[in-house]
Amino acid sequence: MSFAFLLCLATILVIAAIGAPIAYAIIIGAFAYLWAAGSSIGIAGKVLMDGLYQSYILLAVPLFIVAANIMNAGSISDRLLNFCVAIVGRFRGGLGHVNVVTSLVFSGMSGSAVADAAGIGRIIIEMMTKSGHYTRGYAAAITAASATIGPIIPPSIPMVLYALVSGSSIGYLFVAGILPGLLMGAVLMAINAWIAHRRGFALEAAVPMSDLPRITARAFPALMMPVILLYGIYGGVTTPTEAAAVAAFYALILAAGFYRAMSIRSFYEILVESARSSAAIGLVIGGALILNYIVASENIPSLVADALVGLDIPPILFLLSVNLLILLLGCILDASTIILVIIPLFIPTCRELGIDLVHFGVVAIVNCMIGLITPPYGILLFVINAVTRIPLGEIIREIWLFLAVLVAALLLMIFFPSITLWLPRLLGYEG
User: Fold this and answer.
1) DSSP letters along 332-349, please?
2) Within a domain: residue 282?
3) Is residue 304 situated within a structural domain?
4) 272-304 in b/e burial notation, b at 16+ Cβ within 10 A?
């Protein structure tokens, strides 16, 4: 590695360490590299514009953000929540099950863990604490854990970013996330049931079965969104980016037209908030595009691949090692940074070792989501702390069992690739 590259890394680490946003750290580090290497600063602008111009897929990111914000602002989230309460709220630990099932359902609309936790997650926490059966820390912890499912079941903003850096099919990545997402939901519900029996959580009042058809009918239009998205992509009707536009438009029609739960003013506020969120992600993407150019210029991916292949590392050991690294990095970095900056370093090695890139991508993204709830710097822990004012210490004390079962689910995905690849292969994937 050259002096310029070492200076780039040092600059990024120092700026990030003083608390500056990681996007600024990456961009300033990239400028430091170009200055030390004697290159024109204009290269950064060219790389950035070329990367954005050639990545039509990135339009899906702001569109999915708009769809998620409309879901949270309208009455759609409330209808989905009532549906989940009617289905699983009658069991011991019922509101905990509702929490997980709601995340499974809502993940088919938002594609964002933060949107899930800050939106509908906040509502469920209030329900759980008001019932008197759950501590604040437990309600917040299971909400944070279940929110990690959001970006696994399609649609998924992190999968869009991974497709950008790996060249993998978004469609197959989306389908590959369905079974892993359901597995994550299953293990979370299992540990919730175990804790509920161990702590003697009281039963909630059951919704009468006679009310179930009415509640289902109220939620049915919202439940159709993931069906419409997947049919659009796999039926050849839309591209993934067009499907994101359909998702945003469908959410708007439901909230404003069908449910009549949105005003022009609230829609304006949604667009402003979505623009801010998209801009924040865009800064990270822009910095990552420049940094990836620098990494390629230094031939780092080939050096890493040659070193690992030369050591004759078995593919499963490589996967375990990379996932351990991602899990550790997830404690201090956000998922977008890991996907755009760290993961591309290992993609050439995956190709050399014969590791399927769709399988690798889903496993890596699940790992990044687990990092969102890993103390001390799990972003979802801070998001829930910010929107509910529940002390961080109470959340962290309750998060460990949920974290353990999610790691167990991750290991199952690593050792049994068919969990991620079975559905894509049914649809013709040949990887």
Assistant:
1) TS-HHHIIIIIGGGTHHH
2) yes
3) yes
4) eebeebbeebbbbbbbbbbbbbbbeebebbeeb
- Domain membership of residue 76 (yes or no) is yes
**pTM of this structure:** 0.76
Q: 69-93 in b/e burial notation, b at 16+ Cβ within 10 A?
A: bbbbbbbbbbbbbbbbbbbbbbbbb
Q: Which of 151, 152, 146, 147 is nearest to 188 (CA)?
A: 146
Do the beta carbons of residue 242 and residue 60 sit within 8 Å? no
Task: Give me the residue label for tokens 């420049």.
Answer: 290
Number of domains in the chain: 1
Q: Which residue has the tokens 């590695």?
A: 1
What is the phi/psi pair of residue 169, to 5°?
Answer: -75, 125
Give the Å distances, CA to CA, from 90 to 206, 316, 344, 358.
5, 42, 45, 38
**Could you tell me the residue range of the domain that residue 243 belongs to?**
40-426
In a domain, 23, yes or no: no
Digit-coded pLDDT (tens) for 288-336: 778 777 877 777 666 666 666 566 678 898 899 888 888 877 776 777 7
CB atoms closer than 10 angstroms to residue 31: 15
What is the distance between the alpha carbons of residues 92 and 104, in angstroms, rounded to a whole number?
19
